[in-house]
């Protein structure tokens, strides 16, 4: 996945280098379940009635206004990651989705709001819950899986459905691959009745009406195309005791290349759910992806950045990030980049690898020296400079009195960085 992200970024920064787009990447936009449900509702897709709430104080009134007759409600933590049902809060509360009596909603929401939920998809640091989605409780008699994504092989939308859902679809696909059905849709023709029927038959409905289910599938496809989705996943797509088909969960991702024509959707972006390092980098217009390793990399050029990551691996280390400062980074961008690297606690050494072409080595050197004045430098820094104004750059570094490890070439630099990180 990381490789794919990096590849995507590389193509972005190549566009940047070509001067076509000056703006940083979101790569793909992810929105909250309650926002996805609202969008689906606008398209006539059946969704449970629900309301998102940001503080426990509002809850009594919300329940009075919206759910005066409900005995039980579903309280769902809103984070931009799945697996909430089986997740655990750092405060000990088990489960990010709870079905409770109406008068218990306030109590349970109070234990979720402002707290950090850890799931299979969040990583150990978890994600903070700033809203809970309170929904009517439906009696679900059958839980299925439904998704639309973009398929490389058919170079178009692909509908994926499974008669069993609710749980981790990855495990299911591994155990019972034959249960997963896939229906490619011709992007030019659009979805046909036959396509939609194939999907519905694959879902093997127990009580819901076939023709209305076919209509729901067509509406989901319409939403997918018109909103420039890269993924629309409903797990579970459920049948209720009343024979209704409802989308009981919603995961929607959108193509960032469509941001210019999906302004309303892109306004939903929630930076509190993103990697803070990436948010800071995006602000400074740097091409950055956070990774799990211990060597912070500052490189110019996407290709060189990829090569640097590879050669670190080759020498037995792991990169903490992908960072391309670009062809014409300013000194202040270099300072920002350096701050991001040094604020990462996992970073045990920093490797600066610059090939000065359009980028001048003296600008990089001044940026590093200035950054070092602003942040306390606790880890060794290995520097390899080559190209335009390299002598000036080396002089600036030398005269700064900073303790730097200089390297002759890429191989030497990687070797020194890995050794420095393990000391
Ligand atoms: P996820 O774990 O992040 O995918 O969160 P989901 O939105 O899928 O919720 C987890 C589980 O809660 C679902 O798989 C359902 O089994 C259950 N659930 C959600 N809404 C309802 C509801 O209205 N009624 C019932 N009975 N169960 C629900
Ligand atoms: Mn789900």
TrEMBL record:
It comes from the Eukaryota. This is Uncharacterized protein.
């Amino acid at each position: 996945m990381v490789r794919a992200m990096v590849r995507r970024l590389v193509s972005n920064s190549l566009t940047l280098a070509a001067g076509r787009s000056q703006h940083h990447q979101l790569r793909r936009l992810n929105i909250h379940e309650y926002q996805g449900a609202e969008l689906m509702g606008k398209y006539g897709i059946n969704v449970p009635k629900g309301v998102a709430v940001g503080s426990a104080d509002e809850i009594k009134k919300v329940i009075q206004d919206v759910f005066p007759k409900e005995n039980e409600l579903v309280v769902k933590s809103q984070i931009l990651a799945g697996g909430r049902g089986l997740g655990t809060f750092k405060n000990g509360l088990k489960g990010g989705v709870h079905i409770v009596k109406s008068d218990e909603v306030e109590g349970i929401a109070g234990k979720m709001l402002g707290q950090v939920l850890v799931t299979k998809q969040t990583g150990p640091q978890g994600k903070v819950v700033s809203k809970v989605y309170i929904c009517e409780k439906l009696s679900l008699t059958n839980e299925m899986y439904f998704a639309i994504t973009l398929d490389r092989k058919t170079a178009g939308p692909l509908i994926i459905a499974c008669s069993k859902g609710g749980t981790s679809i990855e495990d299911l696909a591994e155990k019972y691959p034959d249960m997963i059905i896939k229906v490619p849709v011709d992007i030019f023709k659009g979805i046909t009745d036959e396509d939609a029927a194939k999907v519905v038959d694959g879902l093997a409905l127990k009580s819901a009406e076939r023709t209305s289910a076919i209509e729901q599938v067509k509406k989901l496809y319409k939403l997918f195309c018109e909103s420039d989705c890269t993924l629309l996943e409903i797990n579970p797509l459920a049948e209720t005791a009343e024979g209704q088909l409802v989308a009981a969960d919603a995961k929607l991702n959108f193509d960032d290349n469509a941001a210019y024509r999906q302004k309303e959707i892109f306004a939903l972006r929630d930076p509190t759910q993103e990697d803070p390092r990436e948010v800071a980098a995006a602000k400074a217009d740097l091409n950055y992806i956070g990774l799990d390793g211990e060597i912070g990399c500052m490189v110019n050029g996407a290709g060189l950045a990829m090569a640097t990551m590879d050669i670190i691996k080759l020498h037995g280390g792991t990169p903490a990030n992908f960072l391309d400062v670009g062809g014409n980074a300013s000194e202040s961008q270099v300072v920002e980049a350096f701050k991001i690297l040094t604020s990462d606690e996992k970073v045990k050494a920093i490797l600066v690898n610059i090939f000065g072409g359009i980028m001048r080595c003296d600008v990089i050197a001044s940026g590093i020296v200035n950054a070092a004045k602003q942040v306390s430098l606790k880890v060794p820094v290995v520097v390899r400079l080559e190209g335009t104004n390299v002598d000036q750059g080396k002089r600036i570094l030398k005269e700064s009195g900073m303790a730097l490890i200089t390297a002759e070439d890429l191989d030497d630099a990687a070797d020194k960085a890995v050794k420095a990180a393990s000391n």
